[in-house]
Amino acid sequence: MVTAGEHNAITDVPGIRVGNATRTGGGALTGTTVVLLPEGSLATVDVRGGAPATRETAALDPRYGGRAVPAIVLTGGSSYGLAAADGVQAWLGTDDPLVPAAALFDLGRGGDFALRPTPAFGVEAASAATAASFGCGNVGAGAGAVNADLKGGLGTASAVLPDGTVVAALAALNAVGSSVDHTTGLPHGLSLGAAGRLRDGEPVGWREFPAAGGDEPTEPPPTGGNPLNTVIGVVATTARLSPSDLYRLANAGQDGLALAVRPAHGLFDGDTVFSVSTGTAETDPEAVVAAAAEVFARALVHGLLAAESVTTTAGHLVAYRERYPRTAAGYRR
Questions:
Q1: How much is the pTM?
Q2: Which sign, positive or negative, has the C-alpha torsion 19, 117, 49, 303?
Q3: Cβ atoms 325, 215 nearer than 8 A
């Protein structure tokens, strides 16, 4: 049976630490998330959509089997925000460390287009990194994230396979596509076949929480808004994987994105999923890849449910928990 890990987070993979730097108020609504990896971790990446903002992804070309990296940066600020990786590179203090990064579009969501992550964000997030529970929702790369007509956010999830292998994900939900079924008020990604097998706080039987009592189904979100978005994230495992299976792990993360966001991988998205193997466990790679799609989808749903409403000079971003309070109340992290 698949269960969630101790923290139901990417930090359930031993050696992984996560830290956030967040700026809100005064025209700012943005942030940076840093994932610090144990020595020897191999990473590659799958970039989809037509408008990515990334750094060092060419160095992770899956044709060459991935590369050992000490950290991965997820950040707001679009391409400007990639500067946060400079701070992480300096903070690491080693000779020319490879620090891949991906950015999402949140420019101007706090009211001031010029307020975006700098190298100082990377230093702050790396310095705050912890192997225990960390903040989700309106923090780090999720601070300025949106999801169609709702507030997006940073989310995480994990799964432990029967042999003890851990598969986990961290993702920032920032998509023009919706993560909510507007006929029921329920998030996409929770109707996964594995959902009923999960325990340790994971939702079971979501149809027990119908859209009622203030959760009336709504019309689909309006189209024609700002199409500049992008979902970014990391899926990690303790499994020792071949180069091809490591790339398939990133592919599976993108599959999980498509389960939780509809539509996904659009022309103006830059959906980017890094995959990481710490290589400490021998297991069936097929089981790892299958779990990765579900855990990435859960991480995105957790980001949606953890997000809080925000009012800035640019307008009001309503959270799922405010739009669908009864359904959200049935969620137990």
A1: 0.90
A2: positive
A3: yes
